[in-house]
Each structure stands twice: as C-alpha cells, then as structure tokens.
Amino acid sequence: MESYALLLAATLNAGTVLAIASLGLLINEKVGIVNLGAEGMMLCAAIAGFATVVTTGNDWLGFAAGMAIGAVLAGIFGLLVIWLNTNQYATGLALTLFGTGFSAFVGTSFVQAKIPERASYAIPGLADIPWIGPALFRHHPLVYITVLLALALIWFMYRTRSGLVMRSVGESPESAHALGYPVRRIRLLAVVAGGALCGLAGAYLSVIYTPLWVEGMVAGKGWIALALTTFATWRPARVLLGAYLFGGVTMLQFHLQSIGVDVPSQFLSMLPYVATIVVLALISRNPQWIRVNMPTSLGKPFYPGA
C-alpha cells in the first residue's frame, strides 16, 4: 500500500508541471494564439529559477524569476506574431530552439550546483494519516495552488465579463474589434500571462520536482503540455485531469521498475510520449468534436484594417 501512496504522490508532483504549463497554453489558445515555444520558455525559466534559488535560497523568488523570464520571452513572441504577423508556428519553433540553446549556454556553471536544504511541507496532522497522508498532504504548496489556479481560470473564463471578452477574441477577433475591444492588446496580455505560467512550470521543475539543473531537463514536457490542451478540448478542468493522467503514466515507469517488472527501461521511458500519440490519434478520429470546442481563430493572424 505504501508504494501505491508514493506512486500517487509522485503522480501529483509530475502532473503539476504539466498542469501549470498546459493552463498557460490554454490561455494563449483561447485568444487564438498557438505558441510552440513552450519547451524553450520552460528551459529558460528552469535555469533562471534554479540559479535564483541557488543564490538566494528562496523558492518563491525562484518561481518569480521563472515567471518573469517566461513572460518576457512570451512578450517578444507576442509582438512578433500579433503586431508583425509573423507565422505563429515558425516563430514558436524558433523560440523553442533559442530557449534550448540559450539555457544550455547560461546553465553551464550551474550543472553541479545544489539547492539549499528546505523545510518539510507536510501539513501537520493530515500528513500522518496512513496512506492518505503520504499521498496527498506532503506536497509543496504550489501543488495545491495549481488546483486553485485551474478553478480560478474556470471562474474567470465562464463567469466574468473579461473572460467572455477573452473567449470572444478567440472566436471572432473581427467582431470583437468591431465592438471596440483592443484585440491585439488582449491577445498580447493573454500570451504574456500564458508565458508566465509556462515559466512557473519550468521553475517548479528545476527547483522542486528535480532540484537540479541539467541541459534539456524539460525533456519534451512542453510538447506534452501542448498536446494536453487539445486532449482537454480547451477546458481547464480537463487540462488538470489530463495532466495528472500523463503524470501518472510518467511515474508508472519508475513504479514498475521498483517492483521488479522486467521491461526494458527504454520502453518505459517512451510511455508518456506513446500515450500522447495514442490520445491525439483517438481524438483526431472525430474532427467534428474538436471543431466544436476549438477556438475558431486559433492560429489565424488578425488584421485590424482588413
């Protein structure tokens, strides 16, 4: 039983990285912008957050540094694709390539660095409950904040006027522009907010999930987060559930190895990516279902003067 509790705890931990990044990308796509630069932003934020915590010893300053780097990179991306109308897909790929190389260059001196010891985050009383305590109540506060973030995003998008405007920009930017809404500024704000969340995911990865810096440590999680937005059909609650599902698949490889299952480690390492491909293939069998839920202007440039 204890091993299953640890598996559940590891699933929540791994799923948090994907959930934060996916929620950020969901905000981007709700206003019609596809950002393929998540992997690069997360890598730059990972080294920024790790370096900050090594220097200051404060996790939250590390998270703030990661969010700042993610927001800045997303802002540059937004200016290029929203104001200069560069191709969203090519610009996002360029951002990923840049982030991969830049983070490797900057992080060279931090490869052997260690983060200072931190206090336990176990919740007094609850953490001692058999099975449930180790599984649910010994996590970093950001694990619980992520769940609250998803709930807040649901409330914002479907219960507030600002959320309605944001979704209308994603559905028909021309109509929103005709009604007097600053479509470009709304899109840029959403892109920056999404980038900040991708940055937070990257910082969480290097500071909490695997407290170290290694070149390329995001290891495809940015791409899985992109797939998750489609898997969840652009709904925050489904994003959260999907993130924990993929987190569980990621952790399953270690659990199987720990109980002595004789499966090649290379095959187990492929599991998260195989699951991503299978899920997308199943979803793609019903294009009408995707079309109903997908923001109409997703990936399409907007020309205010047209």
Description:
The protein has 306 residues and is mainly alpha-helical. The chain has a single domain (2-125, 135-293), classed as ABC transporter involved in vitamin B12 uptake, BtuC (Orthogonal Bundle). Helices cover 72% and strands 0% of the residues. The chain has helices at 2-30, 38-56, 59-83, 88-106, 132-136, 141-159, 161-171, 173-178, 183-209, 221-231, 236-258, 265-284, 287-293. The longest helix has 29 residues, at 2-30. It is globular, with a radius of gyration of 20 Å. The termini are far apart. The model has no long low-confidence stretch (mean pLDDT 89). The chain crosses the membrane at residues 6-26, 33-54, 60-84, 91-111, 141-158, 188-210, 216-234, 241-261, 267-284.
Key features?
306 residues; ABC transporter involved in vitamin B12 uptake, BtuC; 0% strand; ABC transporter permease
Give a quick precis of the structure.
The protein is mainly alpha-helical and 306 residues long. It has helices at residues 2-30, 38-56, 59-83, 88-106, 132-136, 141-159, 161-171, 173-178, 183-209, 221-231, 236-258, 265-284, 287-293.
